[in-house]
Amino acid sequence: MFKDLRNFIFINTSLILFIIIWQLIALKLDNRVILPDFFEVWKIITNPFEEIIGMGSLASNILVSFVRVFAGYFMAVVTAVPIGIFMGYSKNINRFFNNFFNLFKPVPPLAWVPLVMAWFGVSSFATIAGLETGRWYVYLNNLKFSMIFIIFIGGFYPILTSTIHGVRGVRKILLDSAHVLGASKKDIFLKILIPAAAPSIVNGMRIGLGVSWMCLVSAEMLPGSLSGVGYLITHAYSVARTDIVIAGMISIGATGALLDSIFQAFERRKFKWQKLSK
User: What's the start-to-end Cα distance of the chain, in Å?
Assistant: First the structure.
C-alpha cells in the first residue's frame, strides 16, 4: 500500500507542483479575474451538476459537447477509413485522390469557418427534421452543421493519413504468401491486409479524436451556439468569470485525456501481437 501511494505521488508530482505554484501566484495577485484561487475552480469541478451563470450545469454542457464531437468524429471515421484503405491499397486510386486531399490538408480547421458559415449558417439536424418546438428540437438544434463540419475536418486528415500509412506498411511477403497458397483477393484484403493495418488505423483514430476534441471550442464559438463547454467558456469570459473559464478548460482536457486513455487500453488489449512481432 505504501509503495502504491509513493508511486502515485511520484507520477503526479508535476501536477501537484503546478497546483501549488498556481495557488501561490493567485494569493500574491489577489485578483480573481486575472487568476482565481485554485479552490474556487475546484469547487466548480467537484459540483458538476450545479447551475452556472444561467447556462446549465458543467456536466450538461460537457454532454452536449461530447455529442457534437462524436457526431463530427463519427463522420470522419466512416469517410476517412474506407478512402484511406483504398488509397493505400491501390496506386491508381491514390494518384486520383492524392493531389486533391493534399491541397486542403494544410488548411487549418479554423480557416474553414467563414466558408462553413456561408454554406450552413445556423441550420441543424432540427432544420432537416422540420422541427421548430419540442424536446427533440432542443436536442437536434444543438447539432449545428457548421460545428460538426469543423470537428469533422479536424479528425479527417489524421485518420486518413494513418490509414494510408498502415495499409502501405503491410509486409508484401504476407500478401504474396497468401496469394501463393491460393487465397482469393477478397480473403487477402479482409483477413490479412485490414488486420495487419489495424494498429495504424486505430492509432490514427486516436489522434483524430484528439484533434476533433481540440476543434470543439472553436466550433462552439460559432454563431448559433447556445450550449457546450466552448460556449460556456466564451460566455464566462464576457462576464469576467475566469474561474468558470479555467474549470471549462480543465473539463475539456480531462475528458480528452479520458477518451485517449480508452483508446490506449483498447490498443494494449487488442494489439499485443504487434509488440511481440518487433
Answer: 35
81 has pLDDT over 90? yes
Grid cell locating 189: 484484403
Evaluated on CA atoms 220, 131, 129, 123, the torsion sign reads negative
Considering only CA atoms, which of 259, 275, 251 is closest in space to residue 62?
Answer: 251
Adjacent-strand bridge partners of 124:
144
Work out the burial of residue 63: count CB atoms within 10 Å of its CB; fewer than 13 is exposed, 13-18 middle, 19 or more buried.
middle
DSSP assignments along 233-245, one per residue: HHHHHHTT-HHHH
Cα distance between residue 221 and residue 241, in whole Å: 17
Which superfamily, per CATH, for 37-276?
A: MetI-like (1.10.3720.10)
Using the predicted structure, report yes or no on whether residue 273 has a pLDDT greater than 60: no
**Cβ(208)–Cβ(158) below 8 Å:** yes
The answer to whether the beta carbons of residues 76 and 157 sit under 8 Å apart is no
DSSP assignments along 209-256, one per residue: HHHHHHHHHHHHTSTT---SHHHHHHHHHHTT-HHHHHHHHHHHHHHH
Please write the tens of the pLDDT for every residue from 22-55.
Answer: 889 988 888 888 888 888 888 888 888 888 877 7
Cβ–Cβ under 8 Å, residues 142 and 68: yes
Helical H segments across the chain, by residue range: 2-11, 13-29, 38-45, 58-89, 91-104, 113-120, 125-129, 135-141, 145-168, 172-180, 185-187, 194-220, 229-238, 242-270, 272-276
DSSP β-bridge partners for residue 231 = none
